[in-house]
Design goal:
The complex is a heterodimer of chains A (400) and B (80). Chain A is of the alpha/beta class. Chain A has two domains: 140 residues, Aspartate Aminotransferase, domain 1 (Alpha-Beta Complex), CATH 3.90.1150.10; 231 residues, 3-Layer(aba) Sandwich (Aspartate Aminotransferase, domain 2). In chain A, the strands form four sheets. Chain A has a seven-stranded mixed sheet with strand order 4-12-11-10-7-5-6, sandwiched between helices. In chain A, strands 1-2-3-15 form a four-stranded mixed sheet. A four-stranded antiparallel sheet of chain A has the order 13-14-17-16. Chain A is globular and about 60 Å long. In chain B, helix 1 crosses helix 4. The longest helix of chain B has 15 residues. Chain B starts with a helix and ends with a helix. Helices cover 55% and strands 0% of the residues of chain B. Classes of the chains: A alpha/beta (400), B mainly alpha (80).
């Protein structure tokens, strides 16, 4: 018998060697207690959370919690059904209404996860003979959605308007085309030049989908995302997003003004062939989304935190993924696996959790520690975070 | 020199900057097994070939191309 798992032997060996060197496993962290959006207990130690994508800190918002508890009491623990059969409750409609109000769109479709929203949109919008043109650094859910569908897939160099233009120009003029962009690219925290890219896509007659997973909540006057800040709302056909970042729960969505959008509910397999979100989850999402419409102060504090952390780390001599703070993601670039793991370990021992990221998840084979700030990080916490980075960086020898 | 020979010469020329191990190239040379390219190198190389011949090699087509000879055939069919 061929052991189908032997193909993972190199990875098993690499992990074994890493853990044998005495470091803690960066991919096996357990949060024993979660005290707030910014504090948890890990191995008995109170730890500041700087790698959760909980940008707006809505997870413990009293109104959100109340909405969830009420729905749990009223509608039960789960729907046990698909959105198109028995799985659409009042709460799912209210959640879609909240999204329509938040985005100012005619339609909104709620999926069970953000991953499934991308699986569904990629595989359903573009069919055989159509083209999906995507950024090389697109999220795994976008790539997986392409693999699930039957379209022809074309990549362009990350954030290169010229490369996108060139590739669109080589495609058959009459073919259906979907250009897929992200507002914020989550590994390094850089944003897309959406104004220029949307103009190029329109020039070639393509439809446009923007994933605002990491932009929703704090870009643009209404917090809709980078596409709002770029002023291209009227030209973007579909916006995909998630509830697992700024919204503070789990779920995914797509919003659109397309007059035929509603038909997707019947033909989009990752929407149809899975159970809908539990009533408590859609209730927390709806409450959170409505509060995010009026979260100007939180947005301002999140930007202040992001800029302060970026400037502070830079001053200490760390190499960062972007020249300036472009989003609430700050990526600390490190030379190799060993340094990255040692730095990650030093931080966790000091009481700071960040994400460790390595190829193939990262662009260009880089190793990095990814920090994502929260609007609920206090000024004092940002000061503590900077202190811990200085201590860890000096101990590991990354900075002087 | 036939069209195909010309295409092959150009493809081999385009491989050179990515051929870090200095492998001698034939039509049977495999990108993954012989040149040991990772997905990022493949991406950069495909972009270079696309620009050289003013074509698009979709990811779907890339999945079917394993050797230099297959790439020459693909370029031929796309430029033909």
């Amino acid at each position: 018998m061929t052991d189908l798992l032997s193909k993972f032997d190199p990875l098993i060996a690499e992990r074994g060697a890493l853990l044998a060197s005495g470091v803690r496993d960066p991919f096996a962290i357990v949060m024993e207690e979660v005290r707030s959006p910014t504090l948890a207990v890990i191995q008995g130690k109170e730890t500041i959370l700087l790698g959760t994508y909980n940008y707006m800190g809505m997870t413990f918002d009293p109104d959100v919690i109340t909405a969830g508890k009420t729905a749990l009491d009223t509608f039960g623990s789960g729907t046990t059904g698909s959105r198109v059969l028995n799985g659409t409750y009042q709460g799912h409609k209210e959640c879609e209404d909240a999204l329509k109000a938040f985005y100012g769109t005619r339609s909104a479709m709620v999926f069970s996860t953000g991953y499934q929203a991308n699986l569904g949109m990629m595989s359903t919008l573009a069919g055989k003979g159509d083209y999906i043109i995507l950024d090389a650094d697109s999220h795994a859910s976008i790539y997986d959605g392409c693999a699930l569908g039957n379209a022809e897939i074309v990549r362009f160099r990350h954030n290169s308007v010229e490369d996108l233009d060139k590739r669109l120009g080589r495609l058959p003029a009459e073919a259906g085309k979907l250009v897929v962009l992200e507002g914020v690219y989550s590994m390094v925290g850089d944003i897309a030049p959406l104004k220029e890219m949307v103009a190029v896509a329109k020039k070639h007659g393509a439809m446009i989908l923007v994933d605002e997973a990491h932009g929703m909540g704090f870009f643009g006057p209404n917090g809709r995302g980078v596409f709002e800040e770029a002023g291209v709302e009227a030209d973007v056909d579909f916006v995909v997003g998630t509830f697992s970042k700024s919204v503070g729960t789990v779920g995914g969505f797509c919003v659109s003004n397309h007059p035929k959008f509603e038909i997707l509910r019947l033909v989009c397999r990752p929407y149809v062939f899975t159970a809908s979100l539990p009533p408590s989850v859609v209730a927390t999402a709806a409450a959170s989304i409505r509060k995010l419409m009026h979260a100007g102060d939180k947005r301002a504090h999140l930007w202040k935190n992001s800029k302060r952390l970026h400037a502070g780390l830079r001053e200490m001599g760390f190499t960062l993924g972007t020249e300036t703070a472009q989003s609430a993601i700050i990526a600390v670039m490190l030379p190799d696996m060993e340094t990255t793991v040692r730095m990650w370990q030093a931080l966790i021992e000091l009481g700071l959790y960040v994400n460790m990221a390595r190829p193939p998840a990262t662009p260009a084979g880089t190793y990095l520690l990814r920090c994502s700030l929260c609007a609920e990080h206090s000024d004092e916490q940002v000061g503590q975070i900077l202190g811990m980075f200085r201590a860890a960086g000096q101990a590991v020898g990354c900075i002087s | 020199m036939s069209d195909r020979d010309g295409t092959r010469a150009k493809v081999i020329e385009a491989i050179a900057p990515f051929n870090k191990k200095g492998i001698s190239l034939t039509e049977a040379t495999s990108f993954a097994a012989d040149l040991e390219w990772d997905s990022l190198t493949v991406m950069d190389f495909v972009a270079a070939i696309e620009d050289e011949f003013d074509i698009i090699i979709t990811m779907n087509m890339q999945a079917e191309i394993e050797t230099v000879g297959q790439l020459v055939d693909a370029v031929e069919s796309l430029t033909g």
